[in-house]
Amino acid sequence: MRITNNMMAASTIKNINNAATRLNTAQARMSSQQKIQLPSDDPVVATRAIKYRNYVASVEQYQKNVDDVTSWQEVTESALSDLGDVIQSVRELTVQASSDTLSDTERAAIKTEVEELQKQAVQIMNTSYAGRYVFGGYSTGEEPYKLVTTDLGTAVTFKGQYLSVGAVAADTDDTAITDFYTDNAANLYASTGTESIQYNIGFNAKTTVNIEGQDVTGQGTGSNLFDTFSKLLLALDGETSYKTADTSTSPATLTTNSLSITGMLDELDTDQNRLLTAQAVLGARMSYVSKVADRLSTDYSTYSTLMSNNEDVDVSEASIDVTSAEYVYQASLTVGAKVITKTLVDYIA
User: Fold this and answer.
1) How far apart are CA 186 and CA 177, in angstroms?
2) What pTM, to 2 d.p., does this model score?
3) Per-residue b or e along 260-290, where b marks 16 or more CB atoms closer than 10 Å to that residue's CB
4) How many Å apart are CA 334 and CA 176, to the nearest integer?
């Protein structure tokens, strides 16, 4: 086969282009630090890249959720601790007020302190995190607890309904009491079921972030923290009895109950135990979230390493490839210059 000058020139140009392509690919890998620039460069690497990136993105989102859950739970834990301090302070004041040697002035001063602690308890139960009230169940957009004044005295509402009407003074007219309960029959709070706010914090892992207010304070006449406050304030006024209403009948059935300052200690203990139960539930959830966070940290490290190994170039190897490609390209240009410049005059000479 006869090799012509044009054939040599064409072959040389082709080889120079191949060398240039090799150099361009090597330089692109070095500058981008990525093994491939297009999926077509290596479909296997591209497929794995999609999978590993999805894993890493999922873990990052789960970690953000965990951070949000942890912050919410820490705020709740702090609020429950503060409420425990309030109940303990009320208990100490109750023990102090039970002394027979206490003067009316001193007992009145204790009552004032208890009233302030009652307001503080309401404020604590209105604790919010990032604009969301943590004890309101699904109703996170407005304060769940309010201290209001009614025809029967001071009461506490929960999500717009009466959580506690409070103990009613024994000398209150029965008709006034039954009328109040009749008029507000549809406005007395009754739990309609669990309102758990759940977060997705991992692969097939969910957790409830909130503690519901009624699980902390209790609900229903005679079985919640704010009823305890109401009874104690009556007792500090010197009352020895109070009235309650059974709303399961119509009209409400009234009952007169005995009242003493020392008797309030047992009710405060009940309130404290309810609070401790809520703290135990929250503590168990926080422990679970902490373990999930540790696992996510490990997963993130694992998937990030896999993603890096799949996509990222070895810098030293890439540097060698660039140097080698540059050498080959320069050599091909040098050889090509000698081949392409040959003409018929060169051979005649």
Assistant:
1) 15
2) 0.79
3) ebeebeebbeebbebbeebbeebeebbeebe
4) 110
Dihedral sign for Cα atoms in the order 273, 274, 278, 281: positive
Q: Which residues of 200-223 are buried (b: 16+ CB within 10 A; e: fewer)?
A: ebbeebebbbbbbbbbbbbbebee
Count other C-beta atoms under 10 Å from residue 5's C-beta: 14
Torsion 317-320-326-332 (CA) sign: negative
Instruction: Please name the amino acid found at residue 173.
Output: D
Give the separation between CA 107 and CA 136, rounded to whole angstroms.
35
Counted residue by residue, the chain has a size of 349
Among candidate residues 25, 57, 59, the one with its CA nearest the CA of residue 42? 25
Query: For each successive 10 residues of the chain (349 residues), what is the average pLDDT?
Result: 69 73 67 66 80 90 95 96 96 90 88 95 95 92 91 86 82 87 83 87 90 87 83 90 80 84 91 95 95 92 82 63 69 70 55
Under 8 Å CB-to-CB from 290, ≥6 apart: which residues?
A: 70
CA distance 95 to 236: 12
Nearest one of 343, 240, 310, 263 to 45, comparing CA atoms: 310
Please identify which residue in the block is written with the tokens 């609900």.
Answer: 219
